[in-house]
Amino acid sequence: MSTEVQHAEPGIFRKYFFSTDHKMIAMQYLFTGMAMALIGGFFAYVFRMQLGFPNQHVPGYGIVTPGKYNALVTMHGSIMIFWVAMPVLIAAFGNFLIPLMVGCDDMAFPRINRFSYQIFLLSALVLLSSFLVKGGPFGGAWTAYPPLSASGAFNLTPVGATLWLLAVVLEFVAFLLGGINFTVTTMNSRAPGMKMYDIPLVVWMIVLASIIFMASVGPLVAGAVMLLFDQTMATGFYDPMRGGDPLLWQHLFWFFGHPEVYVVLLPAMGIVADVIAVFARKKIFGYKTVLYTTWAVGFLSFVVWAHHQFVAGIDPRMANIFSVTTLLISVPITEMVFLYIATLYGGSIHLDTPMLWALAFIAEFMIGGVTGIFLGSSGTDIYLHDTYFVIAHFHYTFVPIAIIAVYAGLTFWYPKMFGRMLNETLGKIHFWGTVIPFNVIFIPLFITGTAGDQRRVYSYAQFAEQSRPALQHLRTTSTIALLVMLSFQFVFLFNFVWSLRKGKSAGANPWRSNTLEWTVPSPPPHGNFAELPTVYRGPYEYGLPGRADDFFPQNVPD
Amino acid sequence: MLERYATAASTYAHWIDYQFLLIAVLVGFWLILAEAVMFWLIFKFRAKDGRPTQYITGEEPHQTRWITIPHLVVILCDIVIIVPAILVWYNIKQVLPPADETVRVIAQQWAWSFQQAGSDGVMDTADDIRTVGELHVKVNTTYHFELMSRDVVHSFAVPAFRLKQDALPGRTITGWFRPNRVGTYDIQCTQMCGIGHALMAGRIIVETPQAHAAWLLRNSSPSVAGQQTPPAAAMDAAMAMAEVRQ
After folding, report:
1. Which of B98, B239, B57, B51 is nearest to A289 (CA)?
2. How far out from the chain centre does Cα A155 lie?
3. How many CB pairs lie under 8 A apart between chains A and B?
4. For residue B110, which residues of chain A lie inside 8 Å, CB to CB?
5. What domains sit in chain A, N to C, each tagged with a CATH number?
């Protein structure tokens, strides 16, 4: 490590394209993810405009035809999950935080780390290139059920469908490489004295998410290769006319697809835990219990997948088993949320912007959680499956995860990443301008879903029951709220760029936090620690009686 | 609760609506309680000068009971929800009450077609009634449906009946419904099936026995049956096309 530090500053090309520094790679993941979020957000704007103001010219896009609508919703879903939530929550925060928080100079395999980002970038480019090919991008929904996805004759996007699949598989490869790195680094490269239960929760959660990801993605990679063969080599793995089975894909997809929800949830929960502890000046209530519930969630997440397929034509007796496991998973998740709320008790709560985001995460995620019960209970899912109720439900989980928790993390670690503080006033304007419209977008959609609005249709003109004016008013309300929410994101972008130069200088530890990343200068130098730290205690020793300071950094001897 | 937003027109619609209400009450109570506790804590323990924070590990027995007791109550609520949920599911999807009538429902890109017995009451005979986009059924009659798809995965959904079942190419899925309210209701396709997905609408017309008998008579006489040939022929052509595409 010490020899690395003495190297001269590398050239631009080596610095940005071949740097193996975990912080550089984290920033590349972060900015790629943010750029993809702008694209995914723009798609949401376009198709919500079509739903709110049917068949009108959408400013900046044009008329939304049925084929384009399908492509927009498919790409919105794929991008937001695979190219925004995963790179930002796992790769960007994981890469930036893990070496700094466990007290080492870099990832265990820096070159694999670099390779992982390059493959990820390639996957994003492959996906975007599908906008340029004949037939346009894939429009068969992000779940890509065959036979629709398997045959160009059915989906009318023969090239787009294959590019989508290739992009997804490349993305999986990138995160398999990343996952190995996160797990090995945390297990093997911790600072002396840092025991398993001294690891900050955000690191634990990213590692557990990586393990869940690596354990669940294998079957889907195999399934994707079979689908690729069906598309390009006329095999019949999913073609019932030739002995294949379309349901096979659904099982392989959801065996990964449901754990994936927890893959992105856990890092978000970890970020929120760390932010709450710092701004409530409190030890996490039952740190070990949080971890046990995480393991329980991780284990159960592997046995709930078929709740996406209750009415898909599986044996109806199977639904009972999956309904029970699905409701069971509510137990550890509820417990985890209760522990977070209990952490607030007896604290000294400072409502700075990161804390506002963290608290909003809990408040909003609970709504997403309880509405899941309606869908996990097989009886009511018959009616609610594939309606806007489902859309509203999972956006009440994914928006807290991929937007709210990410903002909690970004506003919290921004001073460490860039050495300057974000503007607090702009931060609060951005917070309220995001959280209030978010609820106004999705509460109406719970109602339209309850009224029977089905998903993924560009127009309800053909459906008398869904063409009622009252329902259209709700859709229009939702669209207008989306416009408001999107426009407030520019406040954040402005704040982000402005503060890079004009923000108040942060110093090493502006939040008076305990974990190791705050013991190094902001931004951390190449190699992170001038002298590798030794750890003496857990990460959440706030308000320890008998100390002058209300915090007690992990690396300070007793 | 559900009926406020969507008409209920089949026997099991009410079972699902009661289950929905039960869940809404239980989780609504917990949600409001948890949110209230959280906001109260935020207010009560807001930062004040000179008030130190309390050092609580959350690992002592008198502390963990604040989590353990709610945890047990959550398990209890889960059981209260899951038992009727499974009963509702069992009675709708696992049990097949004896049929008074049978209809065949065929999904394809992008239309619904239906086949039911003509006045002879036997399926697959010359006087079968084949319709496209419109299904005529008799009120207070238990129907079995045989659901199939000619190309991709579709989903046969009738919101007013609280009925939803995916149609898979290569298999026939049997289910049932019993309409109990006269009227015309929407049929949706709720599984992404290509660019015509939003056009894949149908109507289900629930008629009184007299009206249904009259409709049956009108449509199953040989001369009118002849008029039904064009849609049937169109369907066969579509099927042939689907095979060519393979």
Report:
1. B57
2. 28
3. 301
4. none
5. 20-106+134-519 (1.20.210.10)
Distance from CA of A457 to the nearest CA of B (A): 5
Q: Are the beta carbons of A514 and A556 closer than 8 angstroms?
A: no
Which pLDDT score is estimated for B222?
Answer: 55
Per-residue model confidence as pLDDT tens digits over B113-166: 999 998 888 888 888 999 999 999 999 999 999 999 999 999 999 999 999 999
Residues in chain B closer than 8 A to A286 (CB atoms): 57-59, 63-64, 67
Q: How many CB atoms lie within 10 A of CB A428?
A: 15
Three-class SS of residue B32?
A: helix
Candidate from B51, B195, B198 with C-beta closest to A459: B198
Residue A263 is which amino acid? V
Contact across the interface for A363 and B19, Cβ inside 8 Å? no
- Rounded to 5 degrees, φ, ψ at B107 are -100, 140
Sheet holding B202-207, edge to edge: B134-138, B202-207, B183-189, B154-158, B163-167
Q: Name the B residues in 82-121 with CB < 8 Å from any A CB.
A: 82, 84-90, 92-94, 109
Of B53, B190, B195, the CB nearest to A348: B53
- Whole-number Å distance between alpha carbons of A319 and B92: 12
Name B173's bridge partners.
B147
CB A75 within 8 A of CB A136: no
- Among candidate residues A102, A84, A100, the one with its CA nearest the CA of residue A30: A84
Task: Please answer yes or no on whether B94 and A317 come within 8 Å at the CB atom.
Answer: yes
For residue A371, which of A348, A350, A346, A396 has the smallest C-alpha distance?
Answer: A396
- In single-letter form, the type of residue at position B32 comes to I
Best mutation target, A311, A333, A385, to test chain B (most B CBs within 10 A): A311
pLDDT tens column, A361-390: 999 999 999 999 999 999 999 999 999 999
Across the interface, of A146, A345, A463, the residue whose CB is closest to B188 is A463
* Chain A residues whose beta carbon lies within 8 Å of the beta carbon of residue B63: 285-286
CA dihedral (A467, A473, A479, A482) positive or negative:
negative
Give the amino acid at B148. Answer: M
Phi, psi for residue B175 in degrees, rounded to 5 = -145, -170
Contact list, A370 vs chain B (CB under 8 Å): 27-28, 30-31
Instruction: Specify the 3-state DSSP secondary structure of A86.
Output: helix
Smallest Cα distance from B101 to chain A, Å: 22
In the structure encoding, which two tokens stand for residue B88, read together? 């509702």
Q: Alpha-carbon distance A397 to A305, whole Å?
A: 17
**Strand-by-strand arrangement of the B143-149 sheet:** B129-132, B111-116, B101-108, B143-149, B173-177
**Alpha carbon distance, N-terminus to C-terminus of chain A:** 28
Q: Check: CB of residue A383 under 8 Å from CB of residue B162.
A: yes
A contacts of B157 (beta carbons < 8 Å): 386, 454
The dihedral through the CA atoms of B86, B88, B93, B97 has a sign that is: positive
pLDDT digits (tens, 9 = 90+) for A145-183: 999 999 999 999 999 999 999 999 999 999 999 999 999
User: pLDDT tens for residues A90-144?
Assistant: 999 999 999 999 999 999 999 999 999 999 999 999 999 999 999 999 999 999 9
Phi first, then psi: what are they for A74, rounded to 5°?
A: -65, -45
Give me the residue from A316, A348, A450 closest to B47, CB to CB: A348
* Cβ <8 Å between A544 and B55: yes
Radius of gyration of chain A (CA): 23
Which residues on adjacent β-strands are paired with residue B112?
B107
Alpha-carbon gap, residue A411 to A376, rounded angstroms: 34
CB pair distance less than 8 Å for A450 and B5: yes
Closest residue to B151, CB basis, from A147, A370, A387:
A147
For residues A218 and A220, give the distance between their C-alpha atoms in angstroms, rounded to a whole number. 5
ipTM, 2 dp? 0.91
